[in-house]
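Attaching the record inline, Q. Sequence:
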Amino acid sequence: MKSHTLKSMTRIYEKIRQALEATPGLTQKGLAARMGLNPAAVNRMLYGRRNIMAEEIPIIEDYLGMALSLAPSSGVDVEYTQDKSKTVARHRGGMADVGGSASALSAVPVYNAGGAAGGLVRGPSPVDWAARHPAQAQILDAYAVYYMGGDMAPRYFRGELVYLHPGRPAKADNDVLLTLASGQTLLRRVIADDGKILRVAMYNPATEETVRHADIKDSALVLARG
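Structure, as predicted:
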């Protein structure tokens, strides 16, 4: 199928960052609120470490009060085909499609977990997308969370991005995200596992506890943080 590409040298995230810096009253925090994202996600976006979804561009334009043209000098390589559902906005470091889902090989969905967020809710509407961590290469079901709990400080700070592998079992000295049958989500350090009881630790306060495998609905191994 015939494809067309518009290429440019200026990166769109730099254009957004420059507009924020040059316009009184516009802030990263304000942009995050308008986009419904964690401020840390917007900060990564402004420095090219998070992809910008095509559907986010109108929201950003509305907040900035300016057009982010997709013509040359915009910093976005736009690839499109006769099937508009396949249109993607491709950025250095990954891609995202107009439908709001990121490429399975370039980005992973991000959800909130723990703290006031309660249990982890994985579904069709993640709160964010993040560039796939190298440790998640070829893991098609990989995902990440903003862990909103405070019980693993100072090992993890509140709101930190945590990259996960949902299929690999955790062993002693691994960190794991547990979703219990009750709906509670726990980020813990594994101490020991006898197949029936998982002994884990948290840091704030420094405490050990046991979790029955029968009470674990889902678990995911922590691969990296970012």
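Residues 12-22 form the longest helix (11 residues). Residues 1-9, 70-104 have pLDDT under 50 and may be disordered.

More tomorrow.
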